[in-house]
Model the fold of this input.
Amino acid sequence: MSAPTLSDIEAVEMQSIPVGYRDTPKEDEDDSDDDEVDELDMIAASSKLPKQKDPALKRHSYMTYIFVCVAAILLLAGLLRGGKDGTSPLNARTKAMSDDLSTSSNTGDNMIIEFTVANLRTNSQNCTHVDKMLQCIPQHNNATNKFRIQLHDEWAPIGVKRFQELTKANFWDDSRIFRVVPNFVSQVGISSYPDVQKYWDSLGNLKDDEVVGSNRRGTVTFATAGPNTRTTQIFINTADNKFLDKQGFSPIGEVLPAGDGYGSMDVVDEMYSKYGEEPDQGMIEEKGKEYLEEEYPLLSYFVTAVFV
Done:
């Protein structure tokens, strides 16, 4: 397929990408302590204090008693009171923290992912996919079936976090690179298992990250269908597509240079492209692997994706 024109690329890119995630809104805890005050007044009014001969000692004992009562009531109320949704305070705080993490920084671990790819154009006859492993003939360079992506939290923290979640859940395993437009993008991110895709779709769309990085060749970006519609689909830019920056496409990472035992963009460039944009995304979501293997058996796909 010849390289598309700029107008063709823009039109094609924006017309065929489904929706995905929704951030879960935070639940506000009920901070009202009116009930606590009423209960405190009732306890204070009905409590019988021991008689003391010394008025000063009596006043001291009374204040100590009040202090202990207040502390006990506040402690009990804190343990029993839930949020508006009926959850316990611990669960409510955990939920709020989980929501906050959707926009927090991810540092250190899980920032590099190694992908193993099957059905590449030049070596599909030399490697066989068996039980999530590629078995290749001895003279085959196995590095040409692997590449690595470096995530950049400083570019797009929300997108990076979702990509990490998908990787931890083994979402990418068996995922077909269903849309390959040479000199533009290679796109993946619809599970070959409909139930898996339904689960992730049920979570709703992701909020957009600010565009910090640029869509140059080798960068990895979530596909969208407009503002705040990122889901599970990503694409790898196989050309400099900086015009996508102004359309709100925020890169989350980039393909690393080749290293010991893995390749780079040379692997991405070998993803099978003869089907172009023929695979129907709706049919992939509905029938998954059954549809893909019957209609598009030569599609390249991810065998595994693991943190390194």
